[in-house]
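Convert to structure. Protein one:
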Amino acid sequence: MAPLRHALSRMMRSLVMKFTVLCAIVLVAATLVMTGIGYVSKSRDNRDTALAHAGLMSQLLAVNIAEQTSLRDARRLTVSLSAFSERDDVSGTYVADVTRNVLVATDGAQFAPGERTTDALVHGALGSVDMRVETVGEIIRVAHPVMHLGRLAGVVVVDVPIAAVSRPASEIFQRQIFVGLIALVIFLPLVAFVVRAALGPIHKLTEAARLASSRKLDMRIDVRTGDELEVLANAFNRMFARLDASMKRIHRLAYVDMVTELPNRERFRKEVEQVTRRAEESGTAGAVLFLDLDRFKRVNDSLGLGEGDRLLEAVARRLRETARGWDLSRGEEGAEPSLVARLGGDEFTVLLPTLRDPADAARVARHIIDAVRRPFEISGHRVFLGVSVGVAVFPRDGADPETLLRHADLAMAAAKRTGGNAFEFFESSMNKTAFERLVLEGELREAVRDDQLVVFYQPKISIKDGSIAGVEALVRWNHPTAGLLSPGTFIQAAEECGLIGEIGDWVMRRACTEMAELNKRGMTLPVAVNVSAVQFEDEGFADAVIETLRETGLPASMLELELTESVAMRQPERVLEQIEPLRARGVGFAIDDFGTGHSSLSYLTRMPFDVFKIDQSFVRDMSRDPHARIVVETILAMAKALKLETVAEGVETSEQLAFLREQGATLAQGYLFARPMPLNDLVRYADSGNAEARAAIA
């Protein structure tokens, strides 16, 4: 029973079946009603026919026996009634005179000859001289007056069985049921067909809604009924079209990078997940390449966001072309193509689904580096970029998207630390390095919070007489366990974790405070403080410096701010806006590491700087590298022409000092004179008359 009940339940979920069953019930009910009505009508007609038949028989008999009744001829009446009573439709009859005496009676008659009838039917017929009829059970009794020569001669009574003159009720009922069944057999299939045809559009709409729920929206419902269903179908079509367009737009927003039209991080993650699963099942290998553009931020800041987006589009095109070229070069039909994606900012990724050998990934990385190194033409400018590439091979370096991206990112960071335009494969030791960097960042935050940083000062010596012309403030980290750490061990970590601005502000405040104290004690030593890009790009930088000078009491003329060449030349107009309020108060400005960037001389002549600091790499290499010597000579000549002071960094030998003096350098700093030292040592150094420096100058 359960399977049958389940089948019926499923069938009744269909609207067509429900309407078919409903129509069938209505049809059956209508058939039953019509059968009942037919039965009642037929029975009534049958009864009327029987009455008419009985009346006609009694009339004919009355006419035939009129003379015999008038003559009271019993013998002839008996013969006539006997012959009449032999009919199947007569059960009994008798004849009475006008005085109601029975003259002749047949078997089955109510009264015998010679009896006086008390039949009310006879009284009525004789009294009205008209036929009288009554039905007693299944017998029709008819009393008809007998007229002879216009005179009433008597009355004849005939009993007629209804069954003999009409069809039985059961036969009528069976016939009606048969007719009804024939009607059901003919009309039920027709009703089912009509219902199915009428509800077919609704079935189409239902099926369309079901498909739409499974996100199959690229369809059209074809309903041409000319009624509300066609209007509804057209509304569905318009709704599906809008939903399809919206879903495609949502999918595009969710999985496509709007700037480059490349797949985004989420799409790339899903693709890597599928590819690594197949690779694990088939035992093949592939690779994920993590790309980070070198110098993009500088270019983006110089050209603006709009041109930066155009540059990213151009980079994306080259990456696609490179990946496509690699796919074609393999010559494998049906092989899954490489996928290029943009994770965000200047970070891209490339998925190589299959590798014959890890060296293939190295070749692709080299092709990418060569492609990106070619100059880009952006709004009439030739723009040069580099790219650092990290490679993680799966399943060796990971089998899920998160692990592979993290390992490829670590490898990319290692390639960037080598100077960029390079690639590195992931190695397990990189995880350790990354962990150590994470620990370092945490400890550095504690150092800033717990005041573990200290300021050292390196004197700047006048090449003319060996006197101390000023000092440069340099930060050190007094680590609780590792001891005194130089900036090279933690400055990059500070930049990456966003502490460089806070550290820079702290160094400036501490240096100004300590130099102000020395100034009050009569020791006047101008101090130079390095300014990071994060500090300088802050809208409130100038106000913060002025506030620091006011709080510490250091004269503005005793503070010199050092900007790197790349920061100074990034946005010249912005530099002027930041510098002018401070220069107006007497703060000096120096370009640090001059000669290492790509400054425009036309901008340099407009920049209100006071000092050029020659990078120590040029000073160190002067004796063995003619190029470095020429750079130093050029810088010194240009500074002299612009009437600017110069500071040569990293002076370690007398030969370097002699060359710098010959070329007109004004100040120098380096181990030849003094190493960076804490404040107390600086005071002692100054009080001693900096004999070492004077000796070196002499």
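Protein two, convert as well:
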Amino acid sequence: MLSRLHNNKRRTIKPATASFRKKDKNRGVWRTGLVKFWLFAAVAALFARLVQVQIVHHEVYAQRAAEQYTRRYTKEAARGPILDRNGTPLAVNVPRFEIGVDKVTAGNLKNLCDKLAPLLGHKPQAMRERLRSSGNYVQISRKLSEEKASVIQALQLRGVSIIEKSERLYPFKGKMAQVAGFVGIDGQGLSGIELELEDELAGKDGWGLHQRTARGKNAGPIINRQKAPRLGSTVILTIDGVIQTIAEEELLKTVRRHNAKGGTAIVMDPASGELLAMASVPGFDPNIASQSAAEAWRIRAVTDIFEPGSTFKIVVMLAALRDSIIRMEEKVFCEQGRYPIFGKVIKDAEKHGRLTLEEVFQHSSNIGAAKIAMKIGKKKFYVAARDLGFGNKTGIRLPGEVKGILRNPSEWSRLSLPFIAFGHEVAVTALQMAMAYGAVANGGMLMKPAIIKEIRDYKNDVVDKFKPHVIRQVMPPDIAQQMMKMLVKVVEDGTGTQARMENVTVAGKTGTAQKPLAGGAGYSQTAYIASFVGFCPAEGARLLVHVAIDEPWPVHSGGSVAAPAVKEMLDRIMKVRKQPEPVGRRATTIRHTSVDRAIPNVTGKHIDDAKRLLDQIGVEYEITGEGDLVQKQSLVAGGDRRVNLQVGTVKNATDYTNMPDLVGLSLRNAVAKASVLGLHVKVVGSGKVVSQKPAEGDKIKVGARCYLECRPPFAISSLMN
């Protein structure tokens, strides 16, 4: 029995052991498969990651790797210069340096600040606090001199970067400030031409890479990993620096003499529409623009509007003659100086009876102009005003221009037409008025005003050049001739006699306008705009001047305040320019006697401008070389007032130029002259230049640095003297 039990157990156990072994074998196979699966998944994931890193996101990770051992920096593009029509620099660049600290690589900030702060004139503790409260990169100083930057560079301070930049310099200071404008702390134009032509002047920044050591120091540039900056374009204005100076000096003198708030002056060539000067008072120094009131930055000739007064009678004159409304000999009764109309009274400064059309303008009769305007009618009067450019922008390339105020006749009251006839209920800019009278001076064409003569790109190729642009033919030449003769009468025997000149016939018109009260509730009895616009010679005019004085006191008439200023400007300008052939009964023959006049230095000027200047003063010249820029001037041996002009082309950044003679110049003039040639300047001392390196005439690469030693002179004259 026991043996049977034992046999039964053996029979029951055997099948269980085989099953367990089968299960263990299956479990092993399953585990092996699982391990293989995870191994395969891991390999696949690794492969996918490698594909992602090496192929899909290669550039991203390559950039991250590069950032570990390189630092990208900006190579700032030099801003293009602004020159006047004769090549005189109005805005140039001088080198300045920017100091920054990278806190990540700087290490011990206390040690760094103790060494760096005294060199920058800072307190170490204040510098440490500034670094700790800012981000990883902190700009410590702007506009640092080259001398200080060199000292800091020599110290090789860890984490400190030195970036060379350029600072804008305006050699003429306050002269031409509104037109040229200025740049902000970031180098971008904020006003004037600097703002209007920001894209052309700014150029395009380049970049480079510095290799970094493990301690974060610069190990030098990576030569094949950089892009050179593109220089800004050169902008040449139609403005003449000498004429601009004359206009500003006479305008300021007039404003001070008559206790006025301010004023504007425009000088232009009516035949082409080129502006030769545009001045505003009060002014400012663009080198320190932040220290002046923002209202001084405005180009008042295009941004400020005013009721013009009697200068607007040119519209009456045009419409009456062009549409044959009144004959020249026909007379208008001027009511003995007092004309009640629609509950208002129009007054004249003097009592007049019956006046012809010419006499109405000669004596500037408001009553006569109002009566003629009512004969003309609203529609024809409005068309004449629009034809002369009033109520529209002139299109000049300057920021902030406004179109003035000339309402549609549908908005006029029954009083509007007679009052607009003598310059009330209408507002104009000084430039609009100048262009309107320019249409009379040039024979009937309304010109588009120009202030940009030429723009040259970084290759020195001309990309934009001025061409006279006729907006419309306003009147036939015979009507323009009649109007010109009427304006001559104004100066000869009318309200503009203080603009009369002895050697040339001047045509012009006075304007005296009461300023509107605030809120439009009538006109002031004490605040006036005094203006005068005149051109000469009356026939074939090449000079037109408009002057407007804001609130002169106590004398406030245009004939007594603005007309003398125009006369002085014309007189001075004609002495420095080649005078047009004078005409008219007051004309006298003008001979140029230049024996006693010094020969001007025309180096750096366009050859055409140089030849014109030398022709004006009777200096003979000979030209050698090819190109359009005078690079050197010298006296011809044995010649009597005869010079040799060596000409060439303006160099680009890969060319060489001849080192100019800077000895004897003021530091400001020397820097300006060198900058025009694309040279950087390192200065030792101050005052006038006493020595230079390289020497005059030596070859020097454009963009290289020259060295000037300066000493204070006993007497330093102003830039224009």
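The chain has four domains: 2-56, 72-230, 241-285+300-459+466-576, 607-711. Residues 241-285+300-459+466-576 form a domain with the Beta-lactamase fold (CATH 3.40.710.10).
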